[in-house]
Amino acid sequence: MKPADIAHLHSISAPSLSPDGDRAVFAVTRPDLEEDAYLGSLWSVPTDGSEQPRKLTRGDRDNAPVYSPDGRWIAFLRPDEDKRPQIHVLPADGGEPWKITDHPLGAGAFSWSPDSARLAYNARVPEEKRYVDGTPDQEPPRRITALKYRVDSLGFTNDRRQHVFVSAPIDPSGEAGEPVQVTEGDHDHGRPVWTPDGTALVFEAALHESRDTDLVSDVWACLPEAGAEPRRITRGVLSVGAVSLSEDGATVYFLGDELGPELVDFAGRVTGLWSVPFDGSEEPRRLTGTEDPRLGVRPQATARGVLVAGENRGAVELYLISPGGVRTTLLGGHVEVQGFDHAGGVTVAVAGGVRDSGELYVITEDGTRALTSFADPALDPLTPTELTARTADGNEVHGWLVVPEGQGPHPVVLMIHGGPFAQYGWQLFDETQVYAAAGYAVLYCNPRGSSGYGQEHGRAIIGSVGAVTSVDVLAFLDEALKDDRLDASRVGVMGGSHGGFMTSWIAAHHGERFRAAISERAVNAIESFHGSSDIGFFFPEPLYGPPESWAKESPLTYADQIDKPFLIIHSEQDWRCPLEQAQRLYVALKRRGHETEMLLFPGEGHELSRSGLPSHRVARFEAVLDWWARHL
């Protein structure tokens, strides 16, 4: 795979089933290098596999389709002339879509009312004279009074709060009508979900008085009308997200994190499935354990239980959780489930693997059957080999090795993931494929601190992040280098975010093992990260220990020990790990006369390597390959 081959990769949105389960609708999106954008349209396919998928829309950035409960309509997001997404409605049996929202900053997540007459959705409401005329440098100054006022990849939030709206009745003539703004105030509100009787909306939000100094969010309910007073359903001690309802509306299901006594300690905690009565008469009940898979993707209640997706040893599997908390695997193994839906007794899921970036599958009692085949045959990815190492104290380190074609011995690139509470896994990963195609053996693993292996594994690095993670990563490297196809004298290390932190740390403490390093979007100085990152006010503790230990835990402290060629890659608009984190390390190395370079990407945030402009992703790959060609 060459850098420009990212154009051959695709992604499939979360699918939506017709009420009878007979058809699935979804969006397919690909990077387009000529347009330097991500282009996508809606597709449909029968779930019995009797027909090939067919294209539904001619838009080039259509996404997030959802069938109406009566099956007559498909609502989806399409950018307007200002490239801001607005909700459109398409007749399910064919015809032209029409726009039903016209918000200055676009519309977001939505859900249909049970009678298919209206949509409840999110939209950001800008302060007067902001974000509307294309001259941001001429806007009035921002008055900041809170700790939580900005988010990476979005920007400032204190002057454009996300609220809940309800659309006017759906009018097939194409008249949009005026929506109703349901929520108000200086708060953000999550995706609204209708109760089955259509009398209320349920959403997650942090509306409590101490919301600026803790990470609590709750489940709330309110009437679908202007000025409605929200009613809190949960009790103010959890971080709540991804709310859904049982089929009878009596139970709210949600994904949630426990936060410790200070209500800010989320480091390494396993997100679980919770339930609470809609009337709030009981305490929330956790249905999955802290050593179970870490859950993600909005849960969906069915007659048999709740569908959820969870991280498990590099996989993302689809589970059915019974009301009593019993977990059944519906789609497991070497897969990465990215979205799912259930209707009419039919379950479908989008899942990728090591040879494709995602296809749509129908899941039956007899097994799983693919409904799509969008993988580009021009790509022939190399298959990773699973590898397990053990540290001197017996800790297991799980990971993978991709070996390029040819006899070798091959130079080696050791990759370290971000997070730290995240995982590498069983997926077609453009990073590994591009480097392996260029002749490098690629190693990547899930050391302590990673997700997918339980809460004890995830929290094992607290207070000693660099030292503990290094033990696991180097043990994995040692195990891999037993393979004669790998050249132990030509090894490089690289990583982004937490992986960039670890690259800087390892280059300083274990530099003799490597020829060169690439640190991307890294945390290098914890003390300044604390004051400059969008998550800095709560993230460093307890992960890096108390403030008095931050200098000892910061890679920047040991910059004078880095003695190998060092490339720093950063984005100019990164608010997660701000640019000063890169600049400070660059200056420290450069003033010593050390061989170092810094590559900065204009207009990009923390997610450059995953969702940045296609041209920037290609340029990044080319810079990485150039660096390794020079030094490995």
Report what the structure shows.
This protein is α+β, with helices and mostly antiparallel strands and 632 residues long. Strands 32-33-35-34-36-37-38-39 form an eight-stranded mixed sheet, with helices on both faces. Strands 1, 2, 3, 4 and 5 form a five-stranded antiparallel sheet that branches. It has a four-stranded antiparallel sheet with strand order 6-7-8-9, with no helix packed on it. Strand 38, helix 8 and strand 39 form a beta-alpha-beta unit.
Number of beta strands: 39
- The portion of residues assigned to helices is 10-25%
* Span between termini: 19 Å
Can you list the strand order of the major beta sheet? 32-33-35-34-36-37-38-39
Q: Note the overall shape.
A: globular
- The gyration radius over C-alpha positions equals 24 Å
pLDDT < 50 runs, ≥5 residues: none
- Biggest pleated-sheet summary: 8 strands, mixed
The whole-number mean of residue pLDDT values reads 96
Class from helix and strand fractions: alpha+beta
Summed up, the helix count is: 10
β-strand percent reads: 25-35%
Protein name: S9 family peptidase
Domain Peptidase S9 prolyl oligopeptidase catalytic: 426-632
Keywords: Hydrolase, Protease, Serine protease
InterPro entries: 6-blade_b-propeller_TolB-like, AB_hydrolase_fold, Peptidase_S9_cat, WD40
Task: Provide the descriptors you would attach to this structure in a database record.
632 residues; alpha+beta; AB_hydrolase_fold
SSE layout and pairings?
Blueprint: E1 11-12, E2 16-17, E3 23-32, E4 37-46, E5 54-55, E6 63-67, E7 73-79, E8 85-91, E9 98-99, E10 107-112, E11 119-126, E12 150-151, E13 155-156, E14 160-166, E15 180-181, E16 193-194, E17 201-205, E18 218-222, E19 231-232, E20 238-245, E21 251-258, E22 272-277, E23 285-286, E24 294-301, E25 306-312, E26 315-321, E27 327-331, E28 336-343, E29 346-352, E30 359-364, E31 367-370, E32 385-390, E33 396-402, E34 410-416, H1 430-437, E35 441-446, H2 455-458, H3 465-480, E36 486-496, H4 498-509, E37 516-520, H5 526-532, H6 540-543, H7 550-553, E38 566-571, H8 579-591, E39 596-601, H9 608-611, H10 614-631
Parallel strand pairs: 34-35, 34-36, 36-37, 37-38, 38-39
Antiparallel strand pairs: 1-3, 2-3, 3-4, 4-5, 6-7, 7-8, 8-9, 10-11, 11-14, 12-13, 14-15, 16-17, 17-18, 18-19, 20-21, 21-22, 22-23, 24-25, 25-26, 26-27, 28-29, 29-30, 30-31, 32-33, 33-35
Helix pairs in contact: 3-4
